[in-house]
Amino acid sequence: MASRSQLRLIFMQFSSITFGMAAIYSLYIINKSGGLIYYKDYGSSGRMDTNDSLRVASLWHSMHAISQQLSPVSGCTGIELLQADTFDLHCFQSLTGTKFFVVCEPGTQHMESLLKFSYELYTDYVLKNPFYEMEMPIRCELFDINLAQAVQKDRVAFLGR
Amino acid sequence: MIGVGKMKQYGNVLDKPLNKGKQEVSLSAFAFLFSEMVQYNQTQVDNIGELERRLEDAGYAVGARVLELLCHRDKGNRRETRLLGILSFVHSTVWKVLFGKVADSLEKGTEHEDEYMISEKELLVNRFISIPKDMGTFNCGAFVAGIVRGVLDGAGFPAVVTAHFVPMEGQQRPRTTILIKFAEEVLLRETRLG
Amino acid sequence: MAPVAPRSGDAIFANVERVNAELFTLTYGAIVRQLLTDLEEVDEVNKQLDQMGYNIGIRLIDEFLAKSNVSRCVDFRETTDVIAKVGFKMFLGVTASVANWDADGTCCSIILEDNPLVDFVELPDNCQGLYYCNILSGVIRGALEMVSMKTEITWIRDVLRGDDAFELQVKLLKQVPEEYPYKDDE
């Protein structure tokens, strides 16, 4: 587990992104053992380096697991939304244990459906690609293209409110 | 016999009536099967050329059967005997049955008399596939090239058929062109037939 | 608040993109031919088909979960029911039924009356030991393993071997409880 100061450091980095125009800052996919297999930055500033994104992924994986144990609700499947002053973090975990999470401007709408849609894109453009090896980092051009379009659409919907 | 199901029994597969070809499965089922076929074939080869050849061979087996099936069912046991006829049969009839649409275009090669091209903006088999950078110009359309070769060969039009990505202006993704190069005998016969 | 699982896959199948079953059938046939050429022994082909099915199953399960809106099944009985009524329909456009439950609810049969894999197929004399549809058992085994169920799947009836239907026996070996790996500090 990362220390408290590490946690703060990373969250401060998130906050620096809020000065950008975009509502969605970044999207992560972690495999069932907690390894980061996809990370994409959609913010215009405050990009995170590889080490930090890996740290956020493993941190979130652990926190998610702990939240299931600590939850007073029986059958809890883990944190779905974390709200902070400067960002929201929405998380979706599939029944197979893959986690999709998005970091966005506080109050950004429709993030559950964006995550659900990302999961569908993952089943199409990652899992049906013969050159993708299970549990490994995702390098599939078609997934990037389609996901970027989905995020864009969401951004448009957000701006159009 | 215990609990006879709805499935009708035929002593011989040849007694079974040929269905109309209207049955469907999900594109996903096909895509997963195709993906697994590519993965299996990757374990059987040392280089990309061999992978292309193996996918083409698999496609050839499909093409040979498609020809028989369609000639019997859709063409009253007749088949095309002229070059343009067989090309249009591939581009229209075969494509429609296998991929649900007529191919985007059929063109004659500009540089060589014996070359024809069938192009598709997005080949069905490539719908979900991203080729890794280290595989260069490899195209899973080799399977479709094999289907085309199987149809042509079975109909008496031997040819070398290959699949290529062709970048398109203003498009993010390249299209796939199936290049058909007919054997010399085919062109000689065409000339004789006039 | 659990969403209601659809009773059948008809609506899903109607909404997904579909292809002519003949492309699927002939492609599968081409795969079986490749395996027979590469591996020669029918037993080896059976094993490889099962392995390929498993490889598909561990991927296909996510598509099933993402696009079927099926929620977590309460038990093995519900799981097999969903596979038969929703899974087979959603992917292959055919419906299967579940029968022959054992007393403790850990073993049953999935029965297929229609199977697009075997159109045009007849087993030649030298392939009588071939489980032509063995890929299906691998798919189910792989898919269930991804949702923590270890199963063993056996063919009971096979139309290509002269039976009147396809029957797959699905036996639950163990249900692995969900565990989260807690790694030490790195």
Automatic annotation (TrEMBL), chain A:
Location of the protein in the cell: Endoplasmic reticulum; Golgi apparatus, cis-Golgi network; Golgi apparatus
Keyword Transmembrane: yes
Keyword tRNA processing: no
SUPFAM superfamilies named in the record: SNARE-like
One GO BP annotation of this record: endoplasmic reticulum to Golgi vesicle-mediated transport
Matches recorded under Pfam families: Sybindin (PF04099)
UniProt entry keywords in alphabetical sequence: Endoplasmic reticulum, ER-Golgi transport, Golgi apparatus, Membrane, Transmembrane, Transmembrane helix, Transport
InterPro entries, alphabetized: Longin-like_dom_sf, TRAPPC
SMART domains for the chain: Sybindin
Recorded GO CC terms: endoplasmic reticulum; Golgi apparatus; TRAPP complex
Record field: transmembrane: 7-30
Family: Belongs to the TRAPP small subunits family. TRAPPC4 subfamily.
Subunit structure: Part of the multisubunit transport protein particle (TRAPP) complex.
Protein name listed in UniProt: Trafficking protein particle complex subunit
Natural source organism: Lupinus angustifolius (Narrow-leaved blue lupine)
UniProtKB/TrEMBL annotation, chain B:
Pfam family, one: TRAPP
Protein name: Trafficking protein particle complex subunit
Family stated for the protein in its record: Belongs to the TRAPP small subunits family. BET3 subfamily.
Subcellular location: Endoplasmic reticulum; Golgi apparatus, cis-Golgi network
Keyword annotations: Endoplasmic reticulum, ER-Golgi transport, Golgi apparatus, Transport
GO cellular component terms listed in the entry, alphabetical order: endoplasmic reticulum; TRAPPI protein complex; TRAPPII protein complex; TRAPPIII protein complex
Subunit structure: Part of the multisubunit TRAPP (transport protein particle) complex.
GO biological process, one term: endoplasmic reticulum to Golgi vesicle-mediated transport
Organism, as annotated: Lupinus albus (White lupine)
TrEMBL record, chain C:
Domain of life: Eukaryota
Record's keyword annotation contains Oxidoreductase: no
Subcellular location: Endoplasmic reticulum; Golgi apparatus, cis-Golgi network
Keyword annotations of the record: Endoplasmic reticulum, ER-Golgi transport, Golgi apparatus, Transport
Gene3D superfamilies for the chain: Trafficking protein particle complex subunit 3
CC annotations in GO: endoplasmic reticulum; Golgi apparatus; TRAPP complex
Presence of the UniProt keyword Transport in the record: yes
InterPro entries the record matches: Bet3 (IPR016721), NO_sig/Golgi_transp_ligand-bd (IPR024096), TRAPP_component (IPR007194)
One GO BP annotation of this record: Golgi vesicle transport
Assembly behavior: Homodimer.
Task of the protein: May play a role in vesicular transport from endoplasmic reticulum to Golgi.
Family assignment from sequence similarity: Belongs to the TRAPP small subunits family. BET3 subfamily.
Protein name according to UniProt: Trafficking protein particle complex subunit
